[in-house]
Amino acid sequence: KTKSPESYFTTVLVFKVTVVVLHVPKVTGNLDDCACDVETIDSFNNDQLFPKLQALLESDYFRFYKVTLNKPCPFWTSSSHCGLRDCAVKPCSPNEVPEGIRSPSHNKYSAEANEQQEECEKTNHLGAVDVSLSEETREALLDWSKYDDEAQRFCVVDDEDSPDSQYVDLLLNPERFTGYKGPEAWQIWNSIYEENCFKPYTVKRPLNPNSFPSSSGGEARTFYSWLEGQCVEKRAFYRLISGLHASINIHLSARYLLQDSWFQKKWGHNISEFKVRFDSELTAGEGPKRLRNLYFLYLIELRALAKALPFFQQHGIRLYTGRPEEDQKHKELLLEILQLAKSFPLHFDETSLFAGDEKEAAKLREDIRLSFLNISRIMDCVDCFKCRLWGKLQTQGLGTALKILFSERQIKALPVSSDHRPSFQLNRQEIVSLLNAFGRISTSIRELKNFRSLLAEDW
């Protein structure tokens, strides 16, 4: 205090504060066209359903999927197959697949059912009416029966008897990032969106990579104005495809190749990849919309599982691998999962679809069925074999879910005894794809929780 004020040096410390804005994809609240909210789905899936479902999908019945991976693309000439090593799929050798799955009786779910079918066929063969039929008539009847089955399907089903069809162990060929990207990959998605989602070419899809410069806000507003103007069925169809696309992108971001050296490969969560696909700021607001469509897809497939419960409750339906104790245990676990699905409090109401004029509704349903059938054919144009495998499985699973949702009358009319041929059936391919496809959606919902935690830590 003895010094004059002029002798003091005043030191001013300036702190530069950098504010980091973390754009975590915000997906909360009620979903469009539904009575459900995101939080209810998160809690139900992550705490109750996901652990049980993962245990079921590790069983032999669900881990082996028969598929034909070398079909030519029916729509354009593919330049080449993916040469990346992570695109390869390792098929099973015959001795790796349980005998009960490989045997001809596996489609009938049990040896008992197979014996009943053989007895029934012998009886029919000895019947006077059947013997009186000409060979041409019998072939025609078989064709009609096949046509009836095909008319219910929303997707192409590979011929299991084809010599090109092979069993694949899904646990040994997991869905993950393979390096397959660029124009070839986008050609697949553009073909799906532009040619099969009822969208006119004049309406540009937001962030379409084929349009330069990137989509403007005006184009996005035009697109969503068009989408909201569509009937609920076509709007739902687009949201299913968008939700499937979002789910696949989450899988690729969650199982990304983080380290590749001569002695080790490390797969894990790639936060940057996730943000590029879903961050609101980096996607001009599209990311959260994509995630909301994922939740919508979850509701559709969950509802299908609940509706399929009476089919799987039939005594003759067994998850047949030839190991009776394990088969029974897994059948009980499956029924437990389906009962849990049925107990979900805020199911999607499928009666809101195709509820108008009967003729118009029937035509719209057929248009949507054919569009999805077309999408399932596009999967044979995917150059990466591992991506093709999981693309075919997930589209077939969603197609099977749609088949279930729109077969309510047939499911309700399922016969009590095994003496009559049921009007509603699912073969093993459809069952395996249905549960595995929903397993992928369930995993995506679970991975969103993981990414939220990682983004918070990153911040």
From TrEMBL:
FAD binds at R176, T178, W189, S242, H245, R277. The keyword Nucleotidyltransferase does not apply. GO terms for biological process: protein folding in endoplasmic reticulum. SUPFAM superfamilies: ERO1-like. Disulfide bonds join C82-C87, C384-C387. One of its GO terms (cellular component) is endoplasmic reticulum membrane. Residues 1-29 form the signal peptide. The active site is at C384 (nucleophile), C387. One of its GO terms (molecular function) is protein-disulfide reductase activity. Its main location: endoplasmic reticulum. Keywords: Disulfide bond, Electron transport, Endoplasmic reticulum, FAD, Flavoprotein, Glycoprotein, Membrane, Oxidoreductase, Redox-active center, Signal, Transport. It is a peripheral membrane protein. Its cofactor is FAD. Belongs to the EROs family. This is ERO1-like protein alpha.
